[in-house]
Amino acid sequence: MDIVRIKEHPILNFESKRGRKVTIYYKGKPIEAYEGETIAAALHAAGIKVLNYSRIKKRPRGLFCAIGKCSSCLMTVNGIPNVRTCITLVEDGMRIEENAPRLPKELKELKKRNVRRVKSDIIVIGGGPAGMMAAISAHDAGAKVVLIDENPMLGGQLVKQTHKFFGKRSQFAGVRGVKIAEILENEVKKRNIEVFLQTSAVGIFQDGNEKIVVGIRKESELIELHGRAIIVATGAMEKSVPFENNDLPGIYGAGAIQTLMNTYGVKPGEKALIVGAGNVGLILAYQLIQAGVKVEAIVEAMPKIGGYFVHAAKVRRLGVPILTRHTILRAEGKEKVERAIVAQIDENWRPIPGTEKIFDVDLIAIAVGLRPSIELLQQAGCQIRYVRELGGHVAVRDEWLETTVRGIFVAGDTAGIEEATTAMLEGKIAGIAAALRLGIASESLVKEIEKTERELEEFRSGPFGKHIVEGIRKLLSEVSK
């Protein structure tokens, strides 16, 4: 198998951050891995992209989201089926097989085990920029806070962002996303906020004035988190686009590629095609080039690019063509991507015959946007509304980000798709607001919320923020009915 670990990178040093070398076994064969990386990353580093096969038609399945929110990477690990290998860390001697639809004895016995109960004032679900800032702000307002995240590390999308942020100095302008993640994590640690990683929230329940979050830690330990308020900052999921063979291994959401490259130092392919010329697609292009991957082209269905000019200019200087009014027709390959067929489209979004282009690539990146992760909010009974400007279905909430279920707040991409800067500002508002609603925080902190709201308004005042402002206006009008 070809080893595709990144050894040299202009920004990141993977050799120094990799943990102890261990051995895992895939179908009985030993594979070299490193502590601190996920099973999926280790398999990719060994050149294994096919992780599973569909139940009925036996079509190959590979990594797609890399954040535990789809089913493409499910495998059987140490006899336990349906393990999300994209967020499960390797352990020495671990045995990995294709997924098996049987319930092992270990899971049958789960209900007999002791349930761990943890009490706090505020439970924060999600350890990305919004969740960490919410936890920090709620703690500083006087609340006892518990923070949970299903990933093996804090930081959310920040841990894979190598570009520098825009905005004000107070909003980390000029600082790379990976560094911001470190800064916020250190702030969480300084406050001794109790953190549960590799813990998936599976339900929110009400018991009188108390709210209970049920979580499963490391696929086996059951946890009940008891609090009086909850802040949901579960982020977003990658959108996809319909085209022939869009389920082949080698087709990833943009975030999954960033995770492989920038978090675990694994090269996802040799030659790439990117679908989508928004900021994510443009940034991904030069991140791929930094990792030694050739970007053949970026295709964009719209008549013009959707991202910042500065990002597009940088990509073009690197020799990457951006094909507007183009779309991908199909991917080709037997077990994984071998080429992509692209065509120009007319004003009615139909492919124009004779304009097809063939790209010999082993990697297709889907960068067509995100949708908010609202499943927990739906389950908790929060009123949900579809707001196109915010990326899809979102929870109705007020100016302080409290939903229609009293005591449940939202922040970050869960509240509407924006940038990490706005996620942090929303997290700050939600954290302080939750503490105020519980009567814990001083009323003087209302001024801090108002100041943060002004910063948000200023950040959204540019052309890219107009649609967000309109989406929020629609939600606030819903609350006032």
Automatic annotation (TrEMBL):
A GO term for molecular function: 2 iron, 2 sulfur cluster binding
Domain 2Fe-2S ferredoxin-type, chain residue ranges per copy: 20-102
Keyword tags: Oxidoreductase
Chain segments annotated as transmembrane: none
Pfam families assigned to the protein according to its UniProt record, in alphabetical order: Fer2_4, Pyr_redox_2
Protein's name according to its UniProt entry: Sarcosine oxidase, subunit alpha
Organism: Pyrococcus abyssi (strain GE5 / Orsay)
Gene for this chain: soxA
